[in-house]
């Protein structure tokens, strides 16, 4: 494409120099030959521009697309239809979708009067995000290759590319099957949607609590006992502070962290566990766990547009998140931060009774050895230190299997002596 653009500009420059040269000789010599040649060249320019301009008139364009979102690794497919309403035929029409996606699909077509041409386009989705799609750009050129005129049809539409997900069949059991998957019953004097048992009527009970079908069966007044239904809830805490991430997109710690988060959300949703998302990006995200069927789509669309552009530190964000967590929650923190201060905030959550774990995205696997910090300059996070507070640590590296990395935490203490795993110390 770049070579074609350079060749086209070069052709225009040479043709312009030719016209200037002929004009110079015509004015300098006064020979009729140069005047006739000059008029011929100018006439060719007028015909070429008029040809390209007329090619863009009398065209109707339609783009048909079934989905408004896809996933990384899929194709953005659609069908473009062109209809020629004009009497003149159309030739050398380049049709392409005007989008900010990489390598949009297109085709060169020709149309006679009343003809309809349709073709399918497919654009590979290589990066997550929210993109501008829906507009179609038709470009016409003249037979001499001097002019290229473009016209845009239809309106912009947003298309969401969801992050890539990885199946996690071997996810560590403490998070694959949360210890609080079933509902807990806690009696309450208030009337709630949860009712687990009935008892005999006692003086002072409200008539609203009477279970009339059971009263008729037992031939005495029976009232309902209500409880608060409390079930396990999972949280994904995604560190999107700007300082925490390294590498160039799409191969960087940010994209790997989002992939891990999306995979965990997908896994927990399959297990019917309410899952929420918290992220300290430029816009702070705190989407509480919910059982609604639309929850998965909301979380995935949030992960599609989120970026590592936050200024709030991870430890500060953990303190802000603390009031929303309880002992019935499991929290997976995904970070590549090289600052150890956030560990103390996680320890506070663990003492609160929250089931906490850390998935560390190894930043050293994304930078050259010479550009990384020397070991020990900013401290170490050890699996032993987190294990003292019952916080497992999982290490995810570039181009490594995420399912395998989340299947078991780093070995600690005596486990390391009997295990071939050697990355027990994580350098920040």
Q: How does this model look, in words?
A:
Helices cover 29% and strands 31% of the residues. The protein is of the alpha+beta class and 428 residues long. It folds into three domains: 1-162, Immunoglobulin-like (Sandwich); 173-178 and 232-427, von Willebrand factor, type A domain (Rossmann fold, 3-Layer(aba) Sandwich); 185-230, no CATH class. It has a six-stranded mixed sheet with strand order 18-17-14-19-20-22, with helices on both faces. A four-stranded antiparallel sheet has the order 5-4-8-9, with helices on one face. A three-stranded antiparallel sheet has the order 1-3-6, with no helix packed on it. Helix 5 packs antiparallel against helix 6 and helix 7 runs parallel beside helix 8.
Shape: elongated
Largest sheet: 6 strands, mixed
According to CATH, the homologous superfamily of the largest domain is von Willebrand factor, type A domain
CATH class category name of the largest domain: Alpha Beta
Question: What are the low-pLDDT stretches, counting only 5+ consecutive residues below 50?
Answer: 179-186, 370-380, 419-424
The radius of gyration over CA amounts to: 33 Å
Gist of the model:
Helices cover 29% and strands 31% of the residues.
Write the layout of secondary structure elements.
Blueprint: H1 2-29, H2 32-55, E1 59-64, E2 69-71, E3 75-84, E4 90-98, E5 106-111, E6 116-124, E7 129-133, E8 135-141, E9 148-153, E10 157-162, H3 173-176, E11 184-187, E12 195-200, H4 212-218, E13 222-230, E14 233-238, E15 247-248, E16 251-252, H5 253-270, E17 275-280, E18 284-290, H6 295-305, H7 314-321, E19 329-335, H8 342-351, E20 355-361, E21 380-382, H9 383-387, E22 393-396, H10 402-405, H11 414-417, E23 425-427
Parallel strand pairs: 2-10, 14-17, 14-19, 19-20, 20-22
Antiparallel strand pairs: 1-3, 3-6, 4-5, 4-8, 7-10, 8-9, 11-13, 12-13, 15-16, 17-18, 21-23
């Amino acid at each position: 494409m770049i070579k074609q653009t350079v060749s086209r500009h070069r052709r225009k420059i040479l043709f312009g120099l030719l016209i200037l040269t002929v004009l110079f000789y015509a004015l300098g010599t006064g020979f009729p030959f140069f005047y006739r040649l000059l008029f011929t060249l100018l006439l060719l320019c007028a015909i070429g521009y008029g040809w390209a301009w007329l090619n863009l008139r009398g065209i109707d364009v339609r783009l048909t697309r079934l989905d408004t979102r896809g996933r990384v690794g899929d194709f953005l497919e659609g069908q473009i239809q062109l209809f020629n309403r004009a009497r003149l035929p159309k030739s050398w029409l380049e049709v392409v979708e005007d989008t900010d996606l990489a390598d949009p699909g297109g085709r060169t077509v020709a149309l006679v009067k009343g003809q309809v041409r349709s073709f399918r386009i497919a654009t590979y989705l290589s990066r997550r995000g929210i993109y501008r799609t829906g507009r179609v750009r038709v470009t016409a050129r003249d037979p001499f290759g001097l002019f290229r005129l473009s016209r845009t049809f239809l309106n912009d539409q947003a298309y969401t590319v969801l992050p890539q997900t990885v199946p996690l069949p071997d996810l560590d059991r403490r998070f694959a099957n949360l210890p609080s998957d079933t509902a807990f019953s806690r009696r309450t004097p208030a009337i709630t949607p949860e009712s687990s048992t009935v008892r005999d009527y006692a003086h002072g009970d409200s008539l609203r609590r009477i279970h009339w079908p059971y009263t008729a069966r037992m031939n005495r007044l029976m009232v309902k006992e209500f409880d608060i239904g409390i079930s396990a809830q999972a949280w994904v805490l995604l560190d999107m502070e700007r300082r925490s991430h390294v590498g160039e997109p799409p191969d960087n710690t940010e994209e790997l962290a989002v992939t891990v988060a999306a995979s965990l959300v997908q896994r927990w949703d399959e297990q019917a566990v309410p899952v929420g998302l918290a992220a300290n990006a430029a816009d702070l995200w705190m989407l509480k766990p919910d059982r609604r069927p639309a929850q998965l789509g909301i979380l995935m669309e949030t992960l599609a547009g989120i970026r590592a552009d936050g200024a709030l530190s991870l430890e500060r964000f953990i303190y802000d998140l603390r009031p929303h967590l309880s002992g019935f929650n499991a929290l997976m923190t995904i970070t590549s931060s090289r600052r150890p201060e956030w560990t103390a905030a996680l320890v506070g959550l663990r003492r609160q009774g929250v089931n906490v774990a850390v998935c560390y995205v190894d930043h050293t696997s994304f930078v050259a050895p010479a550009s990384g910090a020397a070991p020990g300059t900013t401290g170490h996070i050890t699996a032993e230190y987190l294990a003292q507070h019952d916080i497992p640590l999982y290490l995810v590296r570039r181009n490594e299997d995420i399912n395998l990395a989340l299947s078991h935490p780093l070995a600690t203490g005596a486990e390391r002596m009997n295990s071939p795993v050697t990355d027990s110390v994580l350098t920040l």
